[in-house]
Design a protein that fits this description.
Layout (H helix, E strand, L loop, with lengths): L1 E7 L2 E9 L6 E5 L10 H7 L4 E5 L8 E2 L7 H14 L7 E6 L1 H10 L4 H4 E7 L4 H12 L5 H10 L1 H6 L8 H7 L10 H5 L1 H14 L10 E6 L20 E6 L5 H4 L1 H15 L1
Parallel strand pairs: 3-4, 3-6, 6-7, 7-8, 8-9
Antiparallel strand pairs: 1-2, 2-4, 2-5
Length: 277
């Protein structure tokens, strides 16, 4: 393993390289909340030397540092992704991205950039929907009474999102989420739990209410864990309208599928990698 630091807009992001530095393909792993790069340790071990693997702690998590007033919007998080890719030594060709939870949310923002098709070879998204797609889904279901139950069901699953926006309750939500973890799921650090307050407040309501149309021209695989306690399985409805090369894979697992099922996760990721090769 080698590592270096990317300094960008009020943050220092530690970047780590694993696997085979001479491999034909490079994979970038982007974690979510309340995790850090170590959530991918089982997947990294499973990938072995098949590919060159890059992982980093997103701003405010793990070993990263963040200035008190630093920007944590998904627009900035997307800029962080491009900065990390640009920092990879001796990179030839485009990178394959595998992202989970909030890592996936911010990658949808990066995928909408004009730079996406020249930077990314493929995108594997796990349990992290596009906020712009969520806005479209919510509006479509709101005007169709027979779809109200599915809308209410997702709102119930997202109780913690609204909790983060309540000044007093918001401080307690990370602890409540940690207590909901089941055996075998990663145990977050206290610091990583607390960072979610600012992350959710800076992005969710703002972009669910207003934002650009979703867009992704990069070959994409969306993984849907059928036992995800946070997200409904039907949030993939309508994705094919704005993702030309889309594959939806349903897996019999919970929210932390990349951590609990690394063999399966590596197989899904490498399918896209081998297609590009």
């Amino acid at each position: 393993m080698t590592h270096w630091t990317v300094r960008i807009s009020g943050a220092e992001l530690p970047v780590f390289e694993y696997g085979n530095p001479g491999a034909r393909s490079t994979v970038l792993l982007v974690h979510g909340y309340p995790d850090n790069r170590h959530v991918f340790d089982p997947l990294i071990a499973e990938l072995g030397d098949q590919v060159r693997v890059i992982a980093y702690d997103t701003r405010g998590s793990g070993a990263s540092t963040l200035e008190p007033a630093a920007d944590v919007s998904i627009e900035q998080l997307a800029r962080d992704v491009f900065a990390v890719v640009e920092s990879i030594p001796e990179l030839t060709g485009k990178v394959h991205v595998f992202a989970h939870d909030w890592g996936s949310v911010q990658l949808w923002e990066a995928m909408a950039s004009p730079r996406a098709t020249t930077t990314f070879a493929s995108y594997t998204s796990v349990s992290g929907p596009s906020l712009d797609h969520l806005r479209q889904v919510a509006r479509a279901r709101l005007v169709r009474p027979h779809r109200w139950p599915s809308l209410v069901g997702q709102l119930a699953r997202s109780w913690y999102v609204f909790g983060f926006h309540v000044p007093v309750l918001g401080r307690r939500v990370p602890d409540l989420l940690a207590r909901l973890n089941v055996e075998g799921e990663p145990t977050p650090t206290v610091a990583d739990q607390q960072r979610g307050i600012g992350l959710y407040r800076a992005n969710v309501l703002r972009r669910v209410l207003r934002g650009p149309d979703p867009r992704c021209d990069v070959p994409t695989t969306v993984v849907v864990p059928t036992h995800d306690r946070m997200l409904s399985t039907n949030l993939t409805d309508g994705l094919d309208r704005w993702i030309p090369d889309l594959r939806v894979v349903r897996v019999d697992a919970g929210h932390w599928w990349p951590y609990t099922h690394p063999v399966e996760a590596a197989r899904v990721l490498m399918a896209r990698v081998r297609e590009a090769e």
